[in-house]
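tl;dr need the bound structure. longer version: we got a ligand (NAI) that a collaborator sent over and nobodys looked at where it sits. i said id run it. heres the input, straight from their email, havent touched it
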Amino acid sequence: MINFDGADDDLVLSVIGCGYLGAVHAASMVALGHTVVGIDVDRAKITGLGRARPPLYEPRLAELLSDGLGSGRLRFTTDPAAAHGATVHFLCVGTPQQPGGAAADLRHLDAAVTALLPYLKPGDLVVGKSTVPVGTAARLRARIRSVEPAAELAWNPEFLREGHAVADTLAPDRIVYGVPGGPAGIAAADLLNRIYAKAVADGTPVISTDYATAELTKAAANAFLATKISFINAMADLCDATGGDVVRLADALGHDRRIGRQFLGAGLGFGGGCLPKDIRAFLARAEELGAGASLAFLREVDAINLHRRARLVELALAACGGAPAGKRIAVLGAAFKPGSDDIRDSPALEVAERLASVGADVVITDPRALDRVVETRPHLAVACTLDEAIGGAELILLLTEWPEYVELDPVALREVVDRAVIIDGRNALDPARWRAAGWSYRALGRGGS
Ligand SMILES: NC(=O)C1=CN([C@@H]2O[C@H](COP(=O)(O)OP(=O)(O)OC[C@H]3O[C@@H](n4cnc5c(N)ncnc54)[C@H](O)[C@@H]3O)[C@@H](O)[C@H]2O)C=CC1
Ligand SMILES: O=C(O)[C@H]1O[C@H](OP(=O)(O)OP(=O)(O)OC[C@H]2O[C@@H](n3ccc(=O)[nH]c3=O)[C@H](O)[C@@H]2O)[C@H](O)[C@@H](O)[C@@H]1O
């Protein structure tokens, strides 16, 4: 049972949008002692959540949901009127990339606010958590206050990582509030401090600032992380050109405490529902504001990242002797990262798609994400077990570094494949160990290994 019983005062909250962010936020707020109603337009999602069956894989989430539902302080509904009983309303709906464009699509956010407006009461606080272009909070505040002048809006961006979402929500590195100036802003920040009382008491830094700074902090954080990954991937290309080893390079760089080792993982690059779309939306917004030149480097960050996928395909084709047709390729990993079943903009799946499109006999396996692959890409072959995927393979691609793949025994594996050739798309394996077991080991950025 995860319950801190920490909140001195139990607040009633609504969480609007119950996907990766909202489902975790709703369940975590109950663990912090509050009463929560989760609202979503997706009936199937709401039904599953109401039975403690999350529509997504996230460690600890099912347990937290089960505890919350059992306590009677958590429920889920598709009815926006349920927000009427809450005093704080978290906006957690998606802000995807616009179809055919780079900017963020705010239709879901605007629709969520439209649905909430009739149920707002004086004294209510609407709290934006979705990732939005700078300027959105000020616009939404005007909308809200034109209907309920005594309601307020804060922007409280979320920094959680999938695969660690519960831990990141309960014990974040920092908490950021964007609030209006004056007493209204102070009252909004006080209310948020009550909601996050446990983290605040534990000494989590709280930065209370204006809307624009809060919105920009989120965009900047993801832009920085993406830039760090593309930086090390650019170094990987230099390693390939010179015989260097990017993993040792990253270790050496990472010992500099000003740089740090995290997010220097070179390989196939970043994917997922956030970093790729967020850097594009950030640049698009900067261009709208006439500041595009300042963020032009993000175009290069994006290009370096997308080029990783093309490089991996080149490496795979070379390993097939340039004749991929009919070659059995086992792809280990479909999720965009380990610890998640999220396949949005998954680098692994893009590589699998491209190899399948040139006639390779590609079979994909993943411990969590296969259902989503089958649902969205029925033309791709999947294997439910690792053994089934690798049996008779002529090439293995490690594209998502799930622990069970990283811990594979190269000696045992050699017995079940047709050709002992592996491409380590995540630089997650020890090349010496695999080569000693008789494997042809290849990777991006390990020219000298
Ligand atoms: N996934 C993550 O790790 C993080 C996501 N974010 C941001 O949080 C936001 C949500 O992202 P995800 O949870 O990943 O997206 P998601 O697509 O998993 O979830 C969005 C949910 O909103 C629901 N929705 C859409 N329109 C609605 C409406 N009018 N009323 C109620 N519900 C509605 C959808 O049915 C869906 O369940 C995005 O802005 C994202 O950038 C921020 C930090 C972490
Ligand atoms: O805004 C968001 O939604 C979130 O986006 C990222 O979180 P997430 O997408 O869950 O995953 P990350 O751990 O950041 O990984 C993103 C991608 O980068 C790749 N990556 C990560 C680290 C690394 O060193 N190298 C690397 O290629 C991962 O494989 C993955 O494809 C940020 O880390 C979160 O702080 C943020 O809240």
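gonna send this back to them w/ a short note. Residues 211-242 form the longest helix (32 residues).
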